Amino acid sequence: xxxxxxHRSNIYFQGSIIRFIxxxxxxxxxxxxxxxxxxxxxxxxxxIRTTLGVAGNIxxxxxxxxxxxxxxxxxxxxxxxxxSPIPYLASFFNCGLWVLYGMPFVHPHSLLVVTxxxxxxxxxxxxxxxxxxxSDTRKRLRVALVMLVEILVSGGLVLVVLxxxxxxxxxxxxxxxxxxxxNILMYASPLSVMKLVITTKSVExxxxxxxxxxxxxxxxxxxxxLFPFDPFIAVPNGIGALLGILQLILYATFYKPxxxxxxxxxxxxxxxxxxxxxxxxxxxSHP
Length: 287
Fold this sequence. Notes:
The protein has helices at residues 2-65, 68-77, 86-101, 111-133, 137-164, 168-188, 191-200, 208-224, 231-285. The chain is an all-alpha fold. The radius of gyration is 31 Å and the shape is globular. It starts with a helix and ends with a helix. InterPro entries: SWEET, SWEET_rpt.
């Protein structure tokens, strides 16, 4: 009888050990599966962020270069005509602030932000120099004054951040908040051109490529800011994407009227040349 009880207790003990081992194995598998899932999720999120960042770099540089035909026309004609300097002044100031935001001592691990906006500062500076060269005296002075104010504000912000603020979290919050305002200003700067388009019913002075890449650049950086969520990048670029869509809608609306206006202007110019040629011939035949 005692042997039977001992045998039963031994079987129960062995069963308990087996159940404990099975529980450990199952739990280890769950932990291993979860860790693999979290690691793969982190890797995939980082890969998505990097891909969107590279795409954002490409679209941003393309956005900055999209106005090359405009400045080639200015250079060829020797005049800025009715082109507004506001988008280029806003972009110059905005890119300078984002270069500061992406610095390691302000917001670490933001190399893609620095490279994009560093290129933007250089390109916009070239545009503004050309604009100054072919502007009248009054417009040249205004543009130069605004550039000087922007440089002084940026330099003052660098000094304040480095001397009075001592953590990257606070520096990111301060510089990021100011950069958001500047970024919205950059995307909203074509509103003055949009007003001109509505008034004249012509998109002659609103370059299509600028509107297209304004939309695509805003969209890319908005998606980039979601992995992980960065409100300082997401908010202004989301607004920029919406404003880009509005510009494209406006362009589609007034594209045909613009072609008609340009064709009528061309015909008028040709008629004027023909009249001048006839007048010259008449003067030569009747001295």
